[in-house]
């Protein structure tokens, strides 16, 4: 059973995350993303249930405080502790794997030790990477299955180390001094490392027992070396292809200088699944179209004109019908367009005010489709901000919206949850509870 998530992870029964595919975005985003790789889909774990008591403090990674309503006593922080999985956000960093309450009120240590890129691998376990050198994958890594109940780790496969040794093809007319110079500089032929650059670059399909990677030396726009990796999680077999920059490297015998065959399983795993269409504007009354917040009046009953019968002399009775008047513009937000709708359909994420550098950036605003109010998504955790004001005859909101976060297009931006009660907007390490507050976690959230 497929789910609709912004990137890929194991298939589970409940849809958790929605993300608009690149082909469904407006002209502004589409043009900015032309140089980027296409979006990818995620599959996630069963949705946690939101605790009923909100708090205002930020989350600390360390600590093993248990949930008071479900755990009688906590164990020392250095040891994994049991906690109800349904309440957790699972986060990984250089210190280990930790679990956080859905509202950010508490955390626990699940498993100590460097842990990267966690992906759900079932309702009570995740798949993650344990690097052998530092915090990157060039030195190799273990692919581990980690239990969320007791923190035990089981190695399913190992990623071999990889480095690009400059090619010594005489046809290149490169002498020893040239090669030495190239090796000393961070050039295209001698990248410093290969790693997962964005969340979409590592995907897991639990049903097919396969993990797929796109490893690059830099982000998609600047990459000079790229490798596709397929890992059979049942047998541990690893297959690697250098898909960019192979001509500049002396490749190990087990690395192929080619792209994977069209029927390779990873082509399907890494392929984006478009989310289902968002709820109609009529369900909430407000929508966003052509840089305008609009309000529709649906449900007003009118009477159609009395029609003359052609059969007898008796006229037909007037018939009641439902008509919709033209939507009214309640605010104008120039340069913005729709990106993602929340699982409940109430909140619409808008992006605009683009800026360009080594990365491409935009600011983010949330539209409350039940009230028509616009709110800046702030960069720091805290209380819910005041709505943006529209003024003048055109009811325009002042741009750029400097109160809003400026985020690059490759950052992890997605919704999690399955209802208004537990939906959260993920902005890398910042989690936004729309209408209430935002809080932060240290590390990468499992999906």
Account of the protein in words:
4% of the residues lie in helices and 36% in strands. Mean pLDDT is 74; it is low at 1-25, 27-85, 170-191 and 299-316. The strands form 9 sheets. Strands 9-10-11-12-14 form a 5-stranded mixed β-sheet. Strands 20, 21, 22, 23 and 27 form a 5-stranded antiparallel β-sheet that branches. Strand 4 and strand 5 form a beta hairpin. It has 3 helices and 32 strands. The chain has a domain at 281-301 and 319-411. The protein is mainly beta and 447 residues long.
Strand line-up of the largest beta sheet? 9-10-11-12-14
Total of helices: 3
Cα end-to-end separation:
16 Å
Q: Count of DSSP E strands?
A: 32
Globular, elongated, flat, extended or rod-shaped: what is the shape? globular
Average pLDDT, to the nearest integer? 74
Q: Helical amount among residues, as a percent range? A: under 10%
- Rg for CA atoms: 26 Å
Topology:
Blueprint: H1 27-32, E1 88-93, E2 96-101, E3 107-112, E4 116-120, E5 125-133, E6 136-147, E7 153-159, E8 165-166, H2 176-184, E9 202-205, E10 210-216, E11 226-232, E12 238-244, E13 249-250, E14 255-256, H3 265-269, E15 286-289, E16 292-295, E17 298-303, E18 320-324, E19 328-332, E20 336-341, E21 347-356, E22 360-368, E23 374-376, E24 382-383, E25 390-391, E26 396-397, E27 406-408, E28 413-416, E29 424-427, E30 430-433, E31 437-440, E32 444-445
Parallel strand pairs: 12-14
Antiparallel strand pairs: 1-2, 1-32, 2-3, 4-5, 5-6, 6-7, 8-13, 9-10, 10-11, 11-12, 15-16, 16-19, 17-18, 20-21, 21-22, 22-23, 22-27, 24-31, 25-26, 28-29, 29-30, 30-31
